[in-house]
Amino acid sequence: MAFLIIALSCRATPSLKKSCSVLMCGYLTVSIEPLPPVVIGDTVTLKCNFQTDGNLREIVWFQVIEGGGVKQKIFTYDAMYNTSYSHMEDIHRHDDLVYQSTVRLPEVQMEDDGLYECHVGIYDKSSRDKVILVSGSIILTVIVPPKSISVVAANSPAPFSRYEAQNFTLVCIVTGAKPAPMVYFKRDGELIDVVPTAQSSSTVGDQSQAGLWSSRILSSRDLDDTKLHKSLSLLEEEGKLARLGQDGPEGPEPGREPGSKSDPKPTSEVIPETVVSREFPRWVQSSDPLYYFQHRQQAAGDGTMEVRAMLTWSLNPQLDNEALFSCEVNHPALSMPMQAEVTLAAPRGPKLTMSPGKAKVGDTVRITVQGFHEVFPEPMFTWTKVGGRLLDGREEHDGRELILERVPAELNGSMFRCTAQNPLGSTDTHTRLIVFGGSVYVRI
């Protein structure tokens, strides 16, 4: 609280929160006008109204701190000596008896939040030695707008799944707000209809919530019409579709010759998913996928809140690639929503650079991935050597850079593969290492 300004006037206003003392020959009523929440940095005026037909003794303002255990004086008006005194800093002094005491707090901060009391004392008409005290109180609520908002992917970086659908979670992190804001998600500008789940105190991405990870996923064959028709033709029998392995408990139908052309091939050869999933995952979701919403908040040391809102659904690379997701925040201290947005994107072929451009046998060669900072979620990079192990004996190396130390001439013609993948897709780039005599060149 930078400084305190006191204004004393002789007007009375309607009282909403009031304390009253009825005397034998007089009365005293005290009230403090209610206040809406105040945004940090704004100026607030506390107004204590009182009416009496007695003689004023004093007016004292308190700020209640430390959970109510301590009352700190912030202003005192002493009618006996016709003086006013601030227990904080400079004030404007007024010598007149008043019906309203006004305390102005400029640029309120978090420490100004809390309970304030206005105490008014008058002389008892029956005895000058007695003072009647009446007080009123009000809670000043200081609110703080969010300081930051960001959207991240849980469990990132994560690989691309070629064999089954996987759940994907976006986490919206909002910090520095008081009170906790309301957080919601949009997809391509449209509000997402979510299924709420129980709050969890576990870490982000925890899969312990049973309902959180259920989804409506339908397994499907390759969506390519030619492959689909060819696959289904293997299952045709007398114009009908037969389910694999469902000829009945008594074996094949009577009259069918074993090994005849109408017999389907063994299951391992005719399930189209087995072939298709090795190259192209195909998942068909319902037209209205389920989005699960989880929300938790935690108090920070400065009195503000950190909120984490999680949106989870079964990812469909065909539908979700290039989708725009935004996290938006409503808060009473904001005039308009605050938002952060991300566009889901599968990685494309990584661009590789080599250093040094020309290396001699025995030098250290670094092959580095360039770019990909705009890809979300963050891709993971895996290096392999086609047809063998890496120079250090490992089968693969993770990271944006592959380091080949003391390159031998035996690596001439070796092919290295860099795989960039995230939950939306995977892509490869190959680099051939060529050795000419005592020099090594990388061809990309």
Automatic annotation (TrEMBL):
Q: Name one GO biological process term.
A: heterophilic cell-cell adhesion via plasma membrane cell adhesion molecules
List the keywords (alphabetical). Disulfide bond, Glycoprotein, Membrane, Repeat, Signal
Q: For the region Disordered, what residue ranges are annotated?
A: 239-274
Location of this chain's protein in the cell? Membrane
One GO cellular component this record assigns the protein to is: membrane
Mark out the compositionally biased spans (Basic and acidic residues): 253-266
Coiled-coil ranges (or none): none
Q: Identify this protein by name.
A: Immunoglobin superfamily, member 21b
Limits of the Ig-like domain: 14-135, 146-343, 350-434
Q: Predominant location of this chain?
A: membrane
Top-level taxonomic group: Eukaryota
Q: Source species, please?
A: Seriola lalandi dorsalis
